[in-house]
Amino acid sequence: MALLEVEKIDAGYGHIVALHGISLQVDAGEIVTLIGPNGAGKTTLLRVISGLLPARSGRVYFDGRDITSQPAEALVGIGLSHVPEHRQIFGALSVWDNLMLGAFTRRRSGKHELQRDLDFVFDLFPRLAERRPQLAGTLSGGEQQMLAIGRALMARPRLLLLDEPSLGLAPLLVRELFRVIGELRDRGVTILLVEQNARAALRVADRGYVLETGMIVLSGVARALHANPQVQQSYLGRVKREA
Ligand code: ATP
Fold first, then answer.
1. Which pTM was predicted?
2. Separation of alpha carbons 90 and 82, rounded Å
3. Residues 174-193: tens digit of each pLDDT
4. What is the best residue among 9, 38, 167 to mutate for testing ligand 1's pocket, by most ligand atoms within 8 Å of CB?
């Protein structure tokens, strides 16, 4: 059974229809990427999955449970965390306090578990450990992205929805970020990754879907999508050679 099952979702804003009959699934232990041009509906789909935008029709199941249009706060508690596009960390709070806010949604048996989660985050992002007392608003863009992911991880999610995590990051940090995404999967976190950087996303992912104007137009294992001429031409910047 898939960890996440999205079934025939329609959604939109007022008279704008942003998603038409979207179905996809993410199995436990996978990284699945969703690529597509600006305005295709990628962010909208993540918002529907995490309960930030109600679906007009269709269903979303998490671990077999119908979670369609359930509020985001309730979903964090059952293991589904969303790191939105603009990071939304609390700039006036320290790195430490931001992480503690992430931990707030989970009931824990005690200090040891909290410490274990902190060790997990600091192990993945040593820069955050060094900057514990620093105000989050004074971190670099890359560090803020790491903090946003770290904060989501403090809720110990089984499924992490990442929206454009590499946006605006310098190439070196992009590489570091994708390394961490791969490592998270190796440590048991399932990931649905929305990315403009299709090349890096398809390199790290197990499978992918291509979304165009609110519809899934292609799907498959990441390696096959990477080799697909249509994907290469539209998303990997390769020009097709005439024979
Ligand atoms: P991008 O990569 O640019 O973020 P996207 O694939 O994530 O694009 P969405 O942000 O999901 O695309 O947008 C899908 C469609 O819905 C677009 O036509 C967009 O203009 C529209 N849309 C998104 N948010 C809103 C909103 N709050 N109100 C009205 N229309 C919206």
1. 0.92
2. 16
3. 998 999 999 999 999 999 99
4. 38
